[in-house]
What does this fold into?
Amino acid sequence: MQVAFVTVTSVDLGDQLDVIYDVDEDFENFFADKTYGDDLKYLLIRLECNSPKFAEMKKPRKPKYRREGAVEIMHGTQQQTDARSLNYEIILDFSRYDKVEREIVVKNLAQDILNSLDVIKTVKQIKDFQLDKFRDDLARFFQEIKWM
It folds into this structure.
């Protein structure tokens, strides 16, 4: 299983969410040999956190599942999407991340990511996936890196 994150933030937030990139390699190593079913092999979670003046205009995008890999053009660049992949986004509460210490940011991120996982159940094409086992492993990962 592969798990990856992308952050999209307003300028006012600065680099608060960049802590997620500090553990990219740890995520990769932790989940590399784990499988949770045949229907989901790659999970990309978009973490979006905008200042309140922009947040009202933003609605979360629908989760996007791909059973087969595909080539897409995004922002003028050709990109390959993985087979059995799910992309979804979390709209984070700006007040939980603005001007708070790193220790609070990582605890909030861990909590918000774990709380978001139920979106996987809403994707009808994903039938063979052990969500509870994945959630438990993700929580254990966050504990190991001291985010919980």
Observations:
- Residues 30 and 141 are 7 Å apart (CA to CA).
- The first strand starts at residue 2 and ends at 9.
- The chain has five helices and six strands.
- The longest helix spans residues 102-116.
